[in-house]
Amino acid sequence: MWNILIAEGWMQDGTMFLEIAVTLAAAALLYHFIFKRNDETFLPMGDGWWGPGPQPSDEEAEDIRPFKIETSDEDLNDLFDRIDRFRLTQPLEGSRFNYGFNSTYLVKVISYWRNTFSWNKQLDILNKYPHFKTKIEGIDIHFVHVKPKNLPAGRTAKPIIMVHGWPGSFYEFYKIIPLLTDPASHGLSDEHIFEVICPSIPGYGFSEASHKQGCDSVAVARIFYKLMLRLGFREFYAQGGDWGYLVCTNLAQIAPSHVKGLHLNMVSVMGSRLPQVLSILLGQRFPWLFGFQEEDVRRMFPFSKKVFYHIVKESGYMHIQATKPDTAGCGLNDSPVGLAAYILEKFSTWTNKEFIDHEDGGLERKFSLDDLLTNVMIYWLTHSIVSSMRFYKENVGKGVGVAKHDKVPVTVPTGVASFPNELVHCPLYWAKQKYINIVSFNFMPQGGHFGAFEEPENLAKDIQQFVAKVEAK
Question: Measured between alpha carbons, how far apart are the two ends of the chain, in Å?
């Protein structure tokens, strides 16, 4: 990577065209003989058992059980007691969110949580959609399943599975669900009406955590594939961001004949592949070589500032969670205030990197405290922060780009909603290196990492137009 940065520097200071010609020629040869070859076009599904102890010899029950989120007074009293014993750390003068969550603003959040926030009210909101659980590969999988209530005669709803990431939850989709299941009532096109399934990743929220090592994104994709089959869907759409992008990508890789279309609001194909390296070196000066649009250049360059520095600055949590999640998780699982600070800081910076210079982290510019704290409560009451962090260990702990699925192309029709404040911008040129059937790639007008949570209407519209293109084919 340092070579890339150095190269970018001499590109800006005065390019030597002979070196460019030699580089491009060598790149073409290397790419043809090394990177272009791909022996597999799908990902083996495999199988797994993540329950406690050895796998039973009898077949697993496939019953689907209704589920309701409930909380005891004991749980809430314990939460309030821990909040009341919070020890405040004074922030540095003028630090805002540059050192992490500003504890002066944290006092306001905690006061609201303790004195104003109504968990019973939020429970009613959480339970307004039908919840279910079913056991797959030895663990209970939780999911929300919402069917259209006003489906016009002769119309068929299109099933779509929507997968969250970290530090989010199924609750991220609560505002987009009605826009997809009943679009006409919300002033949107009802050309396509959806039946929405929002599962919780194992170890997140109300899905049971794996009892064994190795439950990675491919295992979760397989579990969710089995879930969709269990619900009776032979063909369906898949949508996700953050970890949801990877799980849904793996789902499309293991079951390409069942996934009608893949819609993503985050794509990551960065690595050492030669096309990406060349576009980093030459893309700012020669954007036409890589099909870069003006918006691509604006978001990516100068690369050292817009991408590399931002990745280094924002990836500390990932190093911790991909190496020693249980150590860091101990304190978060014990302190609700610590948990809130750890989670909500991501909803600040990942929504807009400029929020780091606001005293309140810009949190209430995009979200309500009720919504933010509801997401925190899901982690707290289910004791799932440690198991959710382990997902990084399973997926990143072995290294980036070494997993088998990294080398398998995605052949199903793919749509990308590219939000301007996403953590890292992935231009169409990069995305096409892996997703070889992109039918829709749109620059979204506003929004960041949490697309469905921040911009439900814009994301719903993009899903609609993507599905329209797939169905027209």
Answer: 41
